[in-house]
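Query form — protein Quinolinate synthase

QUESTION: What is the three-dimensional structure of this chain?
INPUT:
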Amino acid sequence: MPTAAIAFDAFQRLADEDCEARIVAAKAALGKRAVILGHHYQRADVYKHADLTGDSLKLSRLAASTAADYIVFCGVHFMAEVADILSRPEQISILPDLNAGCSMADMANLAKVERAWRELSEVFDPDEQVTPVTYINSAADLKAFCGEHGGIVCTSTNARKILEWSFAQQPKVLFFPDQHLGRWTGHKMGIPLEEMPVWDPDEPMGGLEVEQIRKAKILLWKGHCSVHQMFQASHILRYKSQYPDAIVISHPECNFDVCRLSDYVGSTEFIIKTIAEAPPGTRWLVGTELNLVNRIAEQFKPEGKIVQFMAPTVCMCSTMARIDPQHLAWTLENLVQGKVVNQITVPEEEAALARLALERMLQVS
Ligand code: 13P
Ligand code: SF4
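ANSWER: The C-alpha cells for Quinolinate synthase are given below.
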C-alpha cells in the first residue's frame, strides 16, 4: 500500500545538529539523483549542504544542465520556477519551504503589467515600440509575458547586454520589477535620468504625462528590494571618512546614490570574484545581503582582507532564510522515501513562453 509523505511536524522541533546529520545521511542515500542548488544569500547552515552555488544567472545555467532527477533549490520561489522551466520535463524542481518568496518579485504582477501595456497603447503601439524586460526576480507569468511580446529576462550580471539587445529590437524598454537595476544599467549606457522615468503601477498611466512617456527610453517599474534599500550613501561617506583607502562594492539593486559612490557595482558572483582577486590587506565595504558578506569576510580573513557590511542594521534576505536545516532535512528524507514534497510546477503553456524569454537571455549572455 502506498505510504503518505512524512509530515513536516516531526522536523519542526528538531535541533540543528540533528538536522545536519540527517541531511548528510539523506544526501548520501540519494546520491546523484538529487542536486542541491544554493544561492549566495542562503544561510550558512543550509549553504554548506549545497552541491552547487552561484548567482541567479549561474544557477539558471546549472538548472538547465544538471542530470539529476531532483533539483532541490535553496533559494527563493522564482529561482525554483526557473529551474522547472529550464530543466527536462521529467526532472522535478523543489523549494524546501514554499514561503521562501522574494519581496521584490511580488512588486510586479501580470495584471499590473498587462494594464501598463494597455495604457501605453493609448500613446503608441507598445508591440512596435517597447521591449519588455523582466529581471529574473519575477514570477513565471511575467517571464511568459516577455516571451510573448518579444521581450527577454535579465539578471544583475547580464543587464547591460540584455538592454543592448532590447534596444536593437525596439526603441524603448519597459523594465520591471527593479527600478534600481534598470536605472543603474541605463545610466552606465549613457541614458540621461530624465529619459528613465518611474512607472508607478498604482497610478493611471504610471503617474506620467504623455510627453514623458513619448520621450522615455526606459520606463522603470516602481519596485525595489527590501534588503538592498537599507544601504544608504551616508553609510559609505561615514566609512570612507574613517578609512579613506576602503574600496566600496555594491549590488545593483542598491539605490542610485549608493551605486554612484561605489568603486564597483555587480552581481553576487562578481562581488565574490572581485574581492577574491584583490591584493591581500585590502579593506572592503560591501553593500549586499548579510549572509554573503559574513561568508566573504570569513573566507578572506586569512589573506588579511577586511570585509565590512555596509549598513549598521541587519539586512538579511529573511524570505530566503526560511529555508532552514529543518525544511531541507524534511525535503530530502521524503525524497529518500520516494515522496516529493513542495514541487514547483509552472503550467506548460506559461512555461513555454517563459522559456522563450529565458532562452533569449541565455543566448545573449
Ligand atoms: P544575483 O543574481 O546577483 O545573485 O542576485 C540575486 C538577488 O536576488 C539579489 O538580491
Ligand atoms: Fe528578493 Fe531582495 Fe531577497 Fe534578492 S535579496 S531574493 S531581491 S528579497
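ADDITIONAL NOTE: The domain at 9-101+319-345 is CATH 3.40.50.10800 (Rossmann fold).
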